[in-house]
C-alpha cells in the first residue's frame, strides 16, 4: 500500500474532524453558513473514509490501491461508520 497516499487521506480526515468539532462546539448554535459547511464536511468525511476503505480492500486483494477513486457524494453519503 502506498503509505504516503494513506497518510495524506488520514491527514485530510483529521483536519475535517477537527473542523467538524469546531463547528459543533459553537455555543450559540450554527448559523446557515455553518450548517452548509457542516454538511460539506460530513460529505467530505464520508468520501475520504470510503476512499480509504477502497484502497485497503484493493491492497488486501493484491490490486493496485492507486486505482481507487473518490466516489460521488450521492453514492457515499449516509454510510454507516
TrEMBL record:
Compositionally biased tracts (Basic and acidic residues): 68-81
Region named Disordered: 58-81
InterPro entries: Uncharacterised_Rv0898c
A Pfam family: DUF2630
Name this polypeptide is given: DUF2630 domain-containing protein
Organism: Nocardiopsis sinuspersici
Organism placement in taxonomy: Bacteria, Bacillati, Actinomycetota, Actinomycetes, Streptosporangiales
